[in-house]
Protein 1
Amino acid sequence: MEVAEKILITGGLLLLLFAFFTGFLMGRVREHAFQAPKYLILSHMEPLMQGTLMLALVWAVRMSTLDGRLEGLAASLMVAAASIQGSKELLNHYQGLEDEFAHRPHPIGFYAARIQSPMASVGLIIFIIGVLRAL
């Protein structure tokens, strides 16, 4: 098993664990409220989707013909970006934000997204190139 596969599998499972934790938090909130806050819902949904994505990307690594170190970098970028995404949503919830884009001054989550997005983009581009080369 390649290093990139191990990174994606471990990261994906940890993201799913984070999603279950935030789901538990959401259940606790829903005991006393009609609806869960937006950012708490996002802090549950993002890692749930991203964790599943990391596990699916293992197939891209298996198909890719790129150097293992480059694939490892891509996997690390993808897992780190997904972790930042879920964490920033939970932070937004605990800060009581309703809209991170409208809030002034911008909260930490706004800037975390500006870091996370390029990381995920670069990681995904590396995987896409690796898969296209294999065709």
Note: The chain has one domain: 3-134.
Protein 2
Amino acid sequence: MNGLGSSFRVTAAGLAAERMRMDVISVNLANANSQRTDTQEAFRSRVAILTATETGPKIQRIALDDTPMRRVLDPGNPFADAQGYTEFSNVQPVREMVNLMSAQRSYEANIAAFNSAKGMIRSALNIGRS
């Protein structure tokens, strides 16, 4: 049963990592249209960096995405620079949605693995009763 117990720990680590990925992506999507103001920079996209361990995936860190900010010509905007450009977040909603779907599929795969291990334990207990 020790092998199945470790599979529970590994899948639980996978569930936690993918949930954190989904949380980071959600924050990115919520701030996709933020813009630079006089006192604050535009929101910079975040990326969850995962690392592999013997006990399952682990969030190593949340890193800032270094892609350039989106610049839009909008001379009427009160936060436009001298050339008339306004700086917006570097979040790319389409890329974030693809990442969200990937995280969701990985989360679902971990749930399936968890349920499979649970079914094996249940079968082993039923064999013992016979």
Note: The chain is about 50% helix and 20% strand.
Protein 3
Amino acid sequence: MKNPLSVLIVDDDPITRQLLRAILRESDYDVIGEASNGDGALAQCLALHPDIVLLDISMPGMNGLAILQELRQKHPDCVVVMLSATATAQRVGDALRLGARGFIVKPFTAGKVVNELGKSLSF
């Protein structure tokens, strides 16, 4: 039996992190960490080596696109899926050009999260 894929959740909103944690655990992903800002995200990613990072774009301090660039350099094998309530074509395009494998628009449903992760992993 294959081990569940490990996930790091990065979002400044604790309710969003809690909801994502519940969705992922119900779908047999292993949530190995959470962060509420860019510094925490980078530190946890380098320490924990998750298979997947769910990364919010809009956060205080370092935004998700800057974090994405750092992750691509320091942890290139990690699959990064972006989260945002403002999914403009420009923002989605920027995220994909910088190396994100997927994009989840807030508000989201459990089905949307699981579906986008599946698509991102088969990329």
Note: The beta strands are 6-10, 30-35, 52-56, 79-84, 102-105.
